[in-house]
Structures are given as C-alpha cells and as structure tokens.
Specification:
By secondary structure, this protein is an alpha+beta fold. It has one domain (2-84). It has helices at 36-39, 51-63, 67-84; strands spanning 2-5, 12-16, 19-23, 25-29, 32-33. It has a three-stranded antiparallel beta sheet with strand order 1-4-5. Strands 2-3 form a two-stranded antiparallel ribbon. The chain is globular.
Length: 93
Amino acid sequence: MATINCPHRHKWVSQRSNVTWEFHDVTIYNDVCDHSDRCGHTACEYFDNSSEATRRFLKGLYHSHTLDGLFADKDYQAQLRQKHQTPPPDFSG
C-alpha cells in the first residue's frame, strides 16, 4: 500500500452536510488506485476497474495488515513518492 498525492494532480471531493473536503491523496494497493472510480482518468497507470484488479486490490489490502506487509508498504510508498516526486500528503487540515 502507498498513500501518495495523485501523480496526475487530480482531486476528489467529499461532502457532509454543508462541509466540503478536497483531497489530492490516493491509496494504491498492488498497483491499483482505490480512487480510480472517482477520477475516471483511464490513462493513469494505476487505473483498473476490472474484477481482477479488485481481487489484487483486496489481496494487497489484506497483506497490508500483516507485519511483513507493514514493512513492505513503507518501501513501496517511498519508491512511488520518489518515482512521482510527490511529497507526503498533508493531513493537517
């Protein structure tokens, strides 16, 4: 798993009542973006809405909850941030 800023600078919006949040971060499991259904950017290397991609995504999600997965996720996240030259997401508000 890796949480990075979208390499294509896409954003997605969440709204609750009269409060709106705008996010630029995406989570990637096994090279499948969990927000591809929201942005629809089919040219993205992490876009895949097939049933096989869903299986890979869920397998990565499961693996991320193991001790080995936690260490592997840190390496994968660092690699993707370096590849896309994106800073860590800012969750401070």
